[in-house]
TrEMBL record, chains A, B:
HAMAP family: NucS. It comes from Methanobrevibacter woesei. One of its GO terms (cellular component) is cytoplasm. The keyword Cytoplasm applies. Its main location: cytoplasm. Gene3D superfamilies: 2.70.180.20, 3.40.1350.10. Cleaves both 3' and 5' ssDNA extremities of branched DNA structures. This is Endonuclease NucS.
Length: 261, 261
DNA sequence: CAGTGAATTTCGGTC
DNA sequence: GACCGAAGTTCACTG
């Protein structure tokens, strides 16, 4: 049988069903009154109330209240779940090894339990992120400006990585910091840091640049920047280039490319 | 009636139930085959597969696959959900105003739908965070060292806030940066920045400190630090004090305090 | 394993 | 509504 449901089960019936579901690595959905205790990286307690509990075959354990996107309590994948009965009360326990974390749920008045062997073989196709932006710029450097030649991706410096390093048409060095969302002051500061890191570093690119008496240009590349970032950019002599992250799914891209082959 | 369930409903039955549930501001749980399209800050597409859908009375909309703690697609609270039928297919649509985001779900082969008017009046009680650590240190400064006198909490400087500002028994200035988890290099850098911000600022504390020829001590306060942070701290002349965040629920604390009154 | 950084981060605070 | 920072962040990726 692919799935099973119990409505208003007794605690012993519920115990049997949950244990069976866990053994079968099924996905369990419950709607029940419960009380929750969490002890691990932090500590929390949630008194009696009706919640939705989701237990996944990968060990993920979620407890949702009727508000918020985030679960009120949870355990990550690979956690071990078990059900047990104590003093004629049903408990669920989810245990994580490192870091040691324990989630204990006391159940009462279960409205329903459903378990199912989920069939889902799809993965999310997505686009519109910093990485997509970087790919796009490496493929079409002119988006930044005419004559821009990217030379390195993820160029390592003291405090992190320069997203894209390159040169303009006059061979001035260009340091690009990409943001796929609106950039704030923190992005400008990050870029500033990379520039000074680079300027203080001992590397071929820099030596060549200095021997040719070229400039180092810092560019913040993002869809937009907020007002404070705008001011800071002008003070710091940094340039801003507005680029939107490509919102094109890989599959679409592939089809498009295939069409050209 | 407090809750309703349908197993293997036809699309029109499902439509009726969902519309009724949305009108009643109920919490909806579904287990169904579906296909998902998201367009907003990013873009994503998820092909047909069985998933669990959760729609909350606050407008939150979650789609869970059988893996991970995070939903594969979602909309935040205050989103508006509606159901509609097109070409004898049932769709769910969740719409957010700012930023404009749209989640569209095509449903097929619904295994079950449940809606319920959830009764939950409890909020999570929790402890073990940075704020708790700060509270604890303000109340018991000797945790840091004998003679430590905290003077300011969240003291504003150029690039942020100094968690705790104070003086040692010799009236040297102490700048504390708190972390409730293992501190890394980034925390040391943050502290360094606050120290230099403070040193470059124009304020009473600093003038007094300099006129008395006192030192400025930087302290990183966290349960532990990683190896890289350890090295950096020694280089930079910053001190590390190991403090664990208090794992004590407010209610417990209140009871403890009451017991002493 | 630990460490780094992005995320449709979410969420709560303040301005 | 924008901005800022914490979070049991989670997650993917690297060494």
């Amino acid at each position: 049988m692919k799935y099973k449901t119990l409505e208003n089960p007794e605690y012993d019936e519920a115990y049997e069903l949950i244990t069976e579901a866990l053994r079968k690595k099924a996905t369990i959905v419950m709607y029940t009154n419960c009380k929750v205790l969490y002890e691990g990286r932090a500590l929390s307690e949630l008194d009696w109330g009706e919640r939705i509990i989701l237990i996944k075959p990968d060990g993920s354990f979620l407890i949702h209240q009727d508000k918020k996107v985030e679960p009120v309590n949870w355990q990550p994948p690979k956690s071990k779940t078990r059900a047990f009965i104590k003093n004629q009360q049903l408990f669920l326990e989810s245990h994580r090894r490192t870091p040691k974390e324990l989630l204990t749920v006391e159940l009462d008045n279960i409205q329903f339990i459903n378990y199912a062997l989920i069939e889902d073989y799809e993965e999310l196709e997505q686009a519109g992120y910093e990485k997509d932006m970087g790919d796009m710029i490496m493929e079409n450097p002119h988006i930044i400006e005419e004559g821009f030649k990217p030379t390195y991706r993820e160029y390592s410096v003291e405090h992190g990585f320069i997203d894209i390093l390159g040169k303009d048409h006059e061979n001035n060095l260009m340091i690009l910091e990409l943001k796929s969302r609106k950039a704030g002051v923190s992005a400008v500061k990050q870029l500033k840091r990379y520039i000074s890191d680079f300027d203080e570093s001992d590397n071929e690119e820099l030596h060549q640049c200095k021997s040719e008496k070229k400039k180092i240009r810092g560019l913040l590349v993002a869809p937009t920047i907020d007002e404070d970032a705008k001011e800071l950019i002008e003070e710091e002599g940094i340039e801003f280039v507005s680029v939107n992250p490509p919102k094109e799914l890989k599959r679409d891209k592939k089809i498009t490319l295939d069409a050209f082959n």
